[in-house]
Structure formats: structure tokens, C-alpha cells
Amino acid sequence: MPGIDFSKLRREIPMEEVLNLLGFQPVRRMGDQWYGPCPFHERGSERADYFSVNVASRRYHCHKCRRYGNQLELWADFIGLPLHPASIDLCLALGRDVPWIRRWR
């Protein structure tokens, strides 16, 4: 199976697109830093701003469950798949081509 150019995928997929797929609605924005409910927790938890996202650097962190990473890792964690198949799934969900790496033989 061919590999995926993960660095190209991270550059090309904005964090905002992944957040939209997750239905994330920030409750507070301070420039590129957004805060809101963590997509991994039940709605209506005691605080709605444990989840912090920097849309410019494409990094997230939940201060409650301690999950963190980039937009590809967020999608993989959310759908419960390893990074490779989750990245393929994300490309399909966004209608993008998968940036395959074909190895020389």
C-alpha cells in the first residue's frame, strides 16, 4: 500500500475544515486561538472552554482529557482509527485527493 505525504496533507487541510466536520462551535475567540467544548466529551459538561485550538498553527489541546495534536490527529482520535486510514477518510470527507507517495522499486 502506498504511503501518504502527511506533511503535504497537514499544510493543505486547514484546522477550520476539520472543526467544521466535527461540528465544533467556539464559545470564545482570541485571534487565532479558539476555545469551546471538546468534541470528545459529552455536551453540557460543566465547562465549555476546556478545548483550545490555534487555527494558525493547526494544533489543538483539551485541558480536561489531555488530548492534543494537529488536525490529522484530531480527526483520527475522533473517528477512532489509526492515522493512515483516518487521513484517507478525512480526504474523502472533504472531497480532496489523497497525496500518495509512490516508492521506487
Describe the overall structure.
The protein is α+β, with helices and mostly antiparallel strands and 105 residues long. The chain has one domain (3-101): DNA Primase, Chain A (Alpha-Beta Complex), CATH 3.90.580. Helix content is 34%, strand content 21%. It is built from four helices and seven strands. It has helices spanning 6-12, 15-22, 71-79, 83-94, and strands at 3-4, 28-30, 33-36, 51-54, 59-62, 68-70, 100-101. The strands form two sheets. It has a five-stranded antiparallel β-sheet with strand order 2-3-4-5-6. A two-stranded antiparallel sheet has the order 1-7. A hairpin with a 2-residue loop joins β2 and β3 (33-36). α2 packs parallel to α3 and α3 crosses α4 (83-94).
How are the elements arranged and paired?
Elements: E1 3-4, H1 6-12, H2 15-22, E2 28-30, E3 33-36, E4 51-54, E5 59-62, E6 68-70, H3 71-79, H4 83-94, E7 100-101
Antiparallel strand pairs: 1-7, 2-3, 3-4, 4-5, 5-6
Summarize the structure.
The protein is an alpha+beta fold and 105 residues long. It has a single domain, classed as Zinc finger, CHC2-typedomain (DNA Primase, Chain A, Alpha-Beta Complex). The chain has four helices and seven strands; from the N terminus they run βααβββββααβ.
